[in-house]
Design brief:
- This protein is an alpha/beta fold and 355 residues long.
- The protein is 26% helix and 22% strand.
- The chain is built from ten helices and 19 strands.
- Strands 1-5-2-6-8-9-10-13-14 form a nine-stranded mixed beta sheet, sandwiched between helices.
- The radius of gyration is 21 Å and the shape is globular.
- The structure holds aspartic acid (ASP).
- The site of aspartic acid has 10 residues, from loops.
Length: 355
């Protein structure tokens, strides 16, 4: 591991030449985007991105024992400031370097990490090696940081047999489309939703039976995205005009309904607004606000009414994955029937089919 200075969008460090002898160590590309893991405290005590994430990371000697690592800096921001175009940049950068490395690690802020991991899952399909996203609750430079262990474990997973987009955080390896940030405090900030985790990190790393492992597949870049999608949470007293306004200005909506995907249909009924949106070719995908479970929109009259008005059930996808998937689907088609069937079909383990 050498030349660890990272610059904007530039690749540093070891490059394998065609006539070089076979490398002993696996090769990993580490893409930095910012986040707490590489933040420092500014004048007022608030955490802010450091100037040189690659240099901070180079102070972890264990990493170079595990792999030859190159650093590519694509952003250096608090992940609250990330926008969907970065998902495409990360996906393209990794795809372009796919054959040059044995695995990939993306360092990222925890706040929007699950959106990025979901997006990378849809953008990079048929993977034959791991793409691992990680970060920290406490900056690398501070006492008690979880960043060092997370980064080392991320590299361990990146050179392992796994071949999926996954978040490595604390003791868990979580499928990219199944992760949820549930704590601003605990070191185990993420959980796997509606599916056991892909793997567990203990004395060794153990993967679940269903985890995708390295094969001879040929990776696909499916870099589609229509960013003009909105997400709204249903709440008691919500005015239907809000849905109308959002439908007028967007190409798709994710509506976080109650429980099994239930939507008010009496006072302040949102059903006519869902019908109006659908008639204007703006798909309304209904997911559940609950952390665990699936939409089951035929169970109650309030869910059935939304279905009859054209709502598309998100089943057991998280709201974050539903949003990213709708952007990805609308990047490919605006045909409502196609959107409907694609939203309900699993592409990368993001949902369990009913029945
Ligand atoms: N605000 C930070 C970020 O998402 C939080 C973190 O990284 O833990 O960039």
């Amino acid at each position: 591991m050498k030349n660890w200075q990272a610059g904007p969008g530039r690749l540093h460090g070891h490059q394998m030449k065609a006539n070089q002898p076979l490398q002993q160590k696996p090769r990993v590309l580490l893409v930095t985007t910012g986040g707490t893991i590489t933040m420092l405290r500014g004048a007022g005590g608030s955490l802010q991105p450091c100037d040189d994430a690659g240099e901070l990371i180079s102070r972890i000697p264990e990493l170079s024992l595990l792999a030859d690592i190159d650093v590519l800096s694509l952003a250096n921001v608090d992940s609250s400031n990330l926008t969907p175009d970065l998902w495409i940049s990360i996906g393209r950068a990794i795809y372009q370097k796919m054959r040059d490395y044995d695995g990939f690690v993306v360092t990222h802020g925890t706040d929007t990490m699950v959106y990025t991991s979901a997006a990378l899952s849809f953008i990079l399909q048929e993977l034959n090696k791991p793409v691992i996203v990680t970060g920290a609750q406490v900056p690398l430079e501070e006492i008690g940081s979880d960043g060092r262990a997370n980064l080392i474990n991320a590299v361990r997973v990146a050179i392992s047999d796994l071949a999926e987009v996954a978040i490595v955080f604390g003791s868990m390896v979580i499928r990219g489309t199944r992760a949820k940030k549930i704590s601003v405090f605990d070191m185990q900030a993420f959980v796997s939703v509606n599916e056991i985790s892909l793997g567990t990190i203990g004395l060794t790393i153990k993967y679940s039976d269903f985890a995708g492992l390295r094969t001879r597949k040929k990776p696909l870049l499916r870099a589609f995205l229509n960013e003009n999608v909105a997400m709204l949470q249903v709440y008691p007293g919500m005015k239907p005009e809000i849905v109308d306004f959002v439908a007028d200005n967007h190409d798709g909506i994710v509506l976080e309904g109650y429980g099994a995907g239930n939507i008010p249909n009496q006072k302040n009924s949102l059903i006519p607004a869902i019908r109006r949106a659908t008639e204007k070719n703006v798909p309304v995908v209904v997911c559940t606000q609950c952390i665990v479970g699936s939409t089951e929109m035929e169970l109650y009259q309030v869910g059935r009414a939304a279905l009859d008005a054209g709502a598309i059930p998100a089943m057991d996808m998280t709201p974050e994955t539903s949003l990213v998937k709708l952007m990805w689907v609308l990047g490919q088609t605006d045909d409502l029937a196609d959107v409907d069937s694609m939203m309900q079909k699993p592409f990368v383990g993001e949902l369990h089919e009913v029945g």
